[in-house]
Amino acid sequence: MKYKSIFSLLILSVSALLFSFINDNGGWTSRFLQINKNGSITYHPDEKGNTIPDFSAVGYHHGFKEIPQLKVVKTLHPVNGDAGKMIQDAIDEVSALAPDANGHRGAILLTKGDYPIAGTLNIETSGIVLRGAGSNTGETRLIATGKGLRSLLKIQGKGKITEIPGTRVQIMDKYVPTGAKSFQLSNTKGLKAGDKIILFRPGTDNWIHDLQMDQIVAREGTKQWTGADYNLSYEREVVRVQGKVVFIDNPVVMAMDQQYGGGSIFKYEYKGRIQEVGIENMLFESEYASDTDEDHGWIAADFNHIENGWVSGVTSRFFGYACVSLDGGAKNITVKDSKCLDAKSIITGGKRYSFNNNGQQNLFMNLETTEGRHDYVTGAKTCGPNVFYQCKSRNTHADIGPHHRWASGTLYDNIDTDGEINVQDRGNWGSGHGWAGVTQVLWNCKVKSAAIQNPWASGKNYAVGVQGKKLAGRLNGRPDGEWEGQDQKGLQPPSLFQAQLRARELTK
C-alpha cells in the first residue's frame, strides 16, 4: 500500500511537470479538434457525429474577396443648416448611374466637418459607398439632430426569400450532424453548382415538447413556443452534386433529425435585395436631452434586404440602440474596426444592442463598445453561421450572446468583456425567450462570468478556453454546456476563426 501511494504521487508529479511544460512551451489544444501540421483541421465528432462547424465562410463574399475601394464620384462639403437633403440628393444622383461589371456605382465622399441631419438618409440601390474622412472628432461627423426615435442611415432593398415552385426535395439521411457540408437527397435532378438553395429545417411540436418550450413557467405576456413558429431557413449555395449527394458552401449548424421532421432543400429567389453597399470612415452622433432620453437617434446604420456589404472604420456615440443593426434579410455583411460608445437611453429591455445581428453569414470583427447592454447579440431564430471576432466591451450593463429564441451557429472568438456571456434557458424573460441558442461556440474569451448550457434536445453549446467565473445559469437543472479549459491560458490555436480561415486556404 505504501509503495502504491508513492507511485501515485510520482505519477501526479510527472503529470504536473508535463502539464507545466505544455503550457510554457506549446499551450494546450481542445478535445474537439486538431490542427494538423499543414494547417488543416481534423474535427472530432461526438457520439452522433456532430462537430464544431467551420465558421470561415462569413462576411463580405464569404471572405473570398477583399472589400473594394470604390472610386469617388461625388464630393460633399459641410453646409449651414440641415445637410440631410444635400446628402440624400447625392445618394439619389449616384443611384441613377450605371453600375460597372462588379455592380459598383461609386463612392460619395463627405469631407471633414459636421453634417446635421434632422431625418433619415436612405440607400436603396446597389453599388454605393458613403465615405467620410475619418471617425475621430474633427473629421467627418453625421449628427442626428433634434427629436425623433429613428435610424440615421437606412441601407435596405426589399423583398424576401421566395421558394421557386417545384424545387423542394427531401433530405434522406436519418440524421445530418452539425458541421456537415453534405447530405443525401431523394432526387438531385436539376441541381447544379452555384444554385442558391434554402436548407429548410421544419419546426415540430414534438421537438418543442422535448425542448420543454411548451412548458415555460408563465407570467403576464409569456408565449409558449409552437412548432409552426420555428421553421428555420438557412441560405446556402450548392458547391457540387455527386449522385444523390449534394455538397454545400456553409455547414449545417443545427442537426437535421428525422425524429423532428428531418429537412429539405429548395431553390429560392430574393428579388429586390441590394448588394455592394459600404459605409466607411465616419463618426455618427445623436443629439440627446438627457442620459435617459428615449426620443432621439436610435440606430446609426440599419441594414436589411442586402447581400455583400460592409461597415468599416465607423464610430457611433449617444444612440439609444445600436451602431450597426443587421436585420433578417442582411447576409454576408462585414462590420469591422468600429465602435459603439456611450449609449443614451433607459437601461432596460430593448435598448443598447450595440452590434445587433439577425441575419446570416455575417462577420463582426475588431469592435469596441462602452455603456452597452447586449453588445454583441443575435435575436430570435437567427440562422448561422455568424461570427463575432476580437471584440471588446467595457461598462456593459447586460450579457453578450444569443438573446432569445433559438439562434443557431454563432462563434464568439476572443471576446473581451467586463460583463457576462450567456447561452442558456432564459425561461419567461421577455415574452418567453426560452432556450437562447444552439451551436454557440465561445473560444478563448475573457469574461467576468458566463453561463453556458446545453438545450434538452438538438445540439450543444461550447465554452473552450473561457477565462472567467462559471455561472450556474438563471434556471436550475439545465444540462451543462461543453466546458473545456476554464481559466487555462495558452489555448492553441488562439483563434478558431483565424485557424479555420488558414485551413480554408489549403482547399483553394
From TrEMBL:
Residue ranges of the region described as Disordered: 473-508
Naturally occurring in which organism (per UniProt): Pedobacter caeni
Upper lineage is: Bacteria, Pseudomonadati, Bacteroidota, Sphingobacteriia, Sphingobacteriales
Q: What is this protein called?
A: Right handed beta helix region
Q: Which domain of life is it from?
A: Bacteria
By its UniProt entry, which Gene3D superfamilies does this protein fall under?
Answer: Single-stranded right-handed beta-helix, Pectin lyase-like (2.160.20.10)
